[in-house]
């Protein structure tokens, strides 16, 4: 299937139009579009505008609240609980990150638990949001059961992604955003949409056998075997059990029960870089780390050593000039 090249401004406008047609406020639709296009511009199409149709379907069938009433309860000086009232997770997490940043700037650290949310998109967006304010961040979210645990034959945890953001003084921030499965489910969905095969370590079929046909994938595999399994458990404890949300196989599915709210949990931790040392020293040391890594001799087949998030940042710079490729079927939906 061929791609259509779309400029950033047009792509955001198309997403906003679709969401507002589903009774999402323009203010919230603009945030969601920003998060989705952020992903596509960085080459993370699994979390890009292809998700729009799903959000519209869930909104139209009553599984998300188009006019949420957010509630924030302070829990001491450094923590808060953010109730998203089952609105769009992108908006909820962005506002919760604003709160976490404020807590870190005032008190050195901040922690915000999020309840009654929905799918929030690429976590790198929120880690970058904090980095722009020169705040260190960690963001986690649970997802519905889709990953076979190490030693198991049926799924329990979701892809349960985690992201970290480390601001620098002169360089772009280090942004690590990763699923605890080998890949996010969205990458399998993108392969289905584009008719491409996948590596045999991404997912398994109904019998637990590795497959290269994305249409046969029933469950995913954890990254690094027991290590990814342990990380997935950690994410679910912190974003689910700690916040009072559902966990494991009790989490509502993304693709199904569209008339029910998913009530997802997320958790954000923010740290002022000047908590232990001078802030400028921290920022300069991150610069030094990045520069020293860049100076390392690359292995055969590599042009250079890059830091987490750098390939995506380079892709974003390129696509802001040349446009963003979108599968033709997705473009047709957005323009319909």
Automatic annotation (TrEMBL):
InterPro entries tied to this protein: Mal/L-sulf/L-lact_DH-like_ah (IPR043144), Mal/L-sulf/L-lact_DH-like_NADP (IPR043143), Mal/L-sulfo/L-lacto_DH-like_sf (IPR036111), Malate/L-lactate_DH-like (IPR003767)
Pfam families: Ldh_2
SUPFAM superfamilies named among the record's database cross-references: L-sulfolactate dehydrogenase-like
Domain of life of the organism encoding this protein: Bacteria
Keywords, alphabetical: Oxidoreductase
Entry similarity comment: Belongs to the LDH2/MDH2 oxidoreductase family.
Protein name stated in the entry: Ureidoglycolate dehydrogenase (NAD+)
The species this protein was found in: Virgibacillus subterraneus
């Amino acid at each position: 299937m061929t791609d259509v090249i779309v400029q950033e401004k047009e792509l955001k406008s198309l997403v906003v139009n679709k969401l507002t047609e589903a009774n999402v406020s323009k203010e919230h639709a603009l945030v969601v579009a920003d998060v989705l296009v952020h992903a596509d511009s960085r080459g993370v199409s699994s979390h890009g505008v292809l998700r729009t149709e799903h959000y519209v379907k869930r909104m139209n069938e009553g599984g998300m609240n188009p006019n949420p009433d957010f509630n924030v309860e302070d829990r001491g000086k450094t923590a808060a609980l953010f109730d998203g009232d089952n609105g769009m997770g992108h908006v909820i997490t962005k506002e919760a990150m604003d709160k976490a940043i404020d807590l870190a700037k005032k008190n050195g650290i901040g922690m915000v638990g999020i309840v009654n949310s929905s799918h929030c998109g690429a976590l790198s967006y929120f880690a970058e949001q904090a980095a722009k304010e020169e705040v260190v961040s960690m963001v986690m979210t649970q997802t519905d059961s889709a990953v076979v645990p190490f030693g198991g034959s049926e799924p329990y945890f979701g892809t349960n992604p985690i992201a970290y953001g480390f601001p620098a003084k002169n360089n772009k921030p280090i942004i690590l955003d990763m699923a605890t499965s080998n890949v996010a489910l969205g990458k399998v969905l993108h392969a289905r949409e584009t008719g491409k095969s996948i590596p045999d370590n991404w997912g398994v079929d109904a019998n637990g056998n590795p497959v290269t046909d994305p249409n046969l994938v029933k469950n995913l595999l954890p990254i690094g075997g027991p290590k990814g399994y342990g990380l997935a458990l950690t994410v679910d404890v912190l974003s689910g059990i700690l916040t009072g949300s559902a966990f494991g196989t009790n989490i509502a599915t993304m693709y199904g029960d569209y008339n029910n709210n998913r009530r997802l949990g997320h958790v954000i931790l923010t740290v002022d870089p000047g908590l232990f040392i001078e802030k400028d020293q921290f920022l300069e040391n991150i610069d030094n780390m990045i520069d020293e890594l860049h100076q390392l001799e690359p292995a055969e087949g590599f042009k250079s050593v890059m830091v987490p998030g750098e390939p995506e940042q380079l892709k974003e710079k390129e696509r802001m000039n040349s446009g963003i490729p979108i599968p033709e079927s997705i473009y047709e939906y957005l323009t319909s």
